[in-house]
Amino acid sequence: MNKSNVKKKICVVTGTRAEYGLLKLFCLKIKNHPDFQLQLVVTGSHLSALHGNTFNEIEADGFKIDQKIDLKLESDTPTGIARSTGIAVEGFAKSYEVLKPDIVVILGDRYELLGAAIAALFHGITVAHIHGGETTEGAIDESIRHCLTKLSHLHFVAADEYRRRVMQLGEDPAYVFNVGGLGVDAIRNMDLLDREAVEQRLRVKFKQKNLLITFHPETLAERGAGNSLIQTLEALSTLQDTLLIFTLPNADTGHQEFFRLINDFVADDPENRVSFESLGQGGYFSCLQFVDGVIGNSSSGLLEAPTFRIGTINIGDRQKGRLRATSVIDCEGQTRSILQAIERLYSNEFRQSLSDVKNPYGEGGASDLIVELISGGSPKKVKKFIDISETKNS
Known about the structure:
- The chain is of the alpha/beta class.
- Helix content is 39%, strand content 16%.
- It folds into two domains: 8-180 and 365-390, Rossmann fold, CATH 3.40.50; 195-356, 3-Layer(aba) Sandwich (Rossmann fold), CATH 3.40.50.
- It is built from 15 helices and 13 strands.
- Strand 4 (103-107), helix 4 and strand 5 (126-130) form a beta-alpha-beta unit.
- The chain starts with 7 loop residues before the first strand and ends in a 19-residue tail after the last helix.
C-alpha cells in the first residue's frame, strides 16, 4: 500500500467486445493491486442489443461497472456517429465528476474514446493510451488514434516502430513505452476450450475446412460501404465442405448494412454458415485453434491470429500500415483476388511455412508492464511538445 493509504483510482474505458477482451487481464490486475482502485466505465456497443448487450459478459467476469454511458447508437450514418461522439463527451464529463479518477485508461482508436479523452482534457485528468502509434489507412480510426495520442500523457505501444511514431507526434520519450500487444498477453493467460467444447458452445461441427470471418466497414472507402463485403461473400459462396463462422462487425458507419448482408448470406446455407454477435474473448480465441485461417479486415487477424500460427487473409485497406507477420496474406476486396488468397492459404507451401511464424506484437507480459509503469508515477498534466530533433537518440 502506498504511504498515504489512499488508493490511486484507475478508470478503464471500454466500448466494444474486442477492446474489452484485450483489457480484461489488465483490469483484473488493477482490481487485485493493493495500491489501485479499479473504476470501469462501459459505453458504445456494449450497451446495444443489436451487438449482443455485451456489458453482461463484463459483469459475468466479476467486474463492477461504475458508469454506463449510452451513446444512442440507433443511427450508423456519419451524422449519427458524430452525434454519438458528442454524447460521449458529455457523458464522460459527468462520469468523471462522480468518479474523480486519477488516470483514465483507453485502448485503440474508436470514436467513443475520443469523447472520453476530450472530457478528461477539460477535467485535467491524466490519460494513458494503449496501442497508439499504429496506422490503419482505410479507416477513420487512423485520425482518431493520433488525436488520442495528443490528448494522452502515458503511451503504451506494441512495437518499436509505433513508439517512434508516437514520439514523432511530439510526445516525451520518457513516457512512451513499448510493452507489446495486449492480445498476445490475453492468449498466453487464458485456458482455451477443447474442440468438443468449442463445438458445443457454437452449436456446430467443424468440417474438413473451417474459416473465421470478421469484416468491418472501411469508413474511408471510396466505393459503397458494402462493396468489398459483397465481393468477399461471393468468393466464400464457391467454397465446398467449408464451415464459415462469422462474427458481426463493430458499430462503425455502415454497420447495419453489413449485418443484413452477412445474416442473409448465412440464412441461405445454415448447415455451412453461422454468425454470432459476439463469441466473447474466450470463445473467439478458442475457435482460432481449430480454424484454418481468418478472413476479413479485423485487426485481430494481424495482432492475435499469428500467435496461433494460422493464416490471415487481410482484405482491403482497413489495416493498411500495420505491422504484419508472414502468416498474413494481403489482397484486394475483389472476388478473384480473394479466391487467389484462399487458394494460397490452403497451399502446401504456405501451410508448411506457418510453423516458423513469429508475432511482431511480442510474446506476452504487456499487462504486467503497464501496471508496473503506472505504479511508477504520472507525468505532468501540462505537456510540452518535444521536437523530433530532441528524440533521435531515445
